[in-house]
Specification:
Chain lengths: 114, 112
């Protein structure tokens, strides 16, 4: 199994809703990542988990809350989002939990905030 | 401050010819570089990487060249195929950083 899966593929939510994005990998990778990508822009790093612990938070607003229940799963909890948060949310994983390594991306969740 | 730059937003190449995608960086601490390919509505796919101890890495049709003195890298695809049409992102990092810095991307179109 060499893939990163993400659910749901598409999500539409209102500004008062609470929802969660899920990511899963079974490659035994030690680091997992959340990125946000707007149209015609590169992916922007949001969070990094190494060995199930949050190691990088790129000053992301608290309305985004990551969670790593175990080494294979990564969640992103969403609450009180703004329309400008609409984007493609990408999850990635890499083998090393400490060094830079090739990151493998999931297909993304297309989020629309109304 | 854009530390990784892909100055060509788009590139059009004839099928069978060589495609050359370029990337420049400003941070001299970067020592690990990667290329990703992205189709619409999909996540980026890892293509090839190179560390600063090398100046060339080859994998099938893909070759990455690194010129450290010029802070420049390039991805060569030969021969180009229609399935290579996608957006290509260059990314850079340094050991211990765990963070990739991406360029803005170049849209490659392979014409029959």
């Amino acid at each position: 199994d060499t893939e990163v899966t993400q659910t749901p593929k598409h999500l539409v939510m209102g500004m008062t809703n609470k929802k969660s994005l899920k990511c899963e990998q079974h490659m035994g990778h030690r680091a997992m990542y959340w990125y946000k990508q707007k149209a015609k822009k590169p992916p922007e790093l949001m969070f990094v988990y190494s060995y199930e612990k949050l190691s990088i938070n790129e000053s992301v607003p608290s309305r985004f809350s990551p969670e790593c229940p175990n080494s294979s799963l990564l969640n992103l909890h969403l609450h009180a989002l703004q329309p400008e948060d609409s984007a493609l949310y990408l999850c990635a994983s890499s083998q090393s939990g400490t060094e830079v390594d090739e990151q493998y991306f999931g297909p993304g969740t297309r989020l629309t905030v109304t | 401050d854009q530390q990784v730059k892909q100055n060509s937003p788009s590139l059009s190449v004839q099928e069978g010819r060589i495609s050359i995608l370029n990337c420049d960086y400003t941070n001299s601490m970067f020592d690990y570089f990667l290329w990703y390919k992205k189709y619409p509505a999909e996540g980026p796919t890892f293509l090839i990487s190179i560390s600063s101890i090398k100046d060339k890495n080859e994998d099938g049709r893909f070759t990455v060249f690194l010129n450290k003195s010029a802070k420049h890298l390039s991805l060569h695809i030969v021969p180009s195929q229609p399935g290579d049409s996608a957006v290509y992102f260059c990314a850079a990092s340094f050991q211990g950083a765990q963070k990739l810095v991406f360029g803005q991307g170049t849209r490659l179109t392979i014409n029959p």
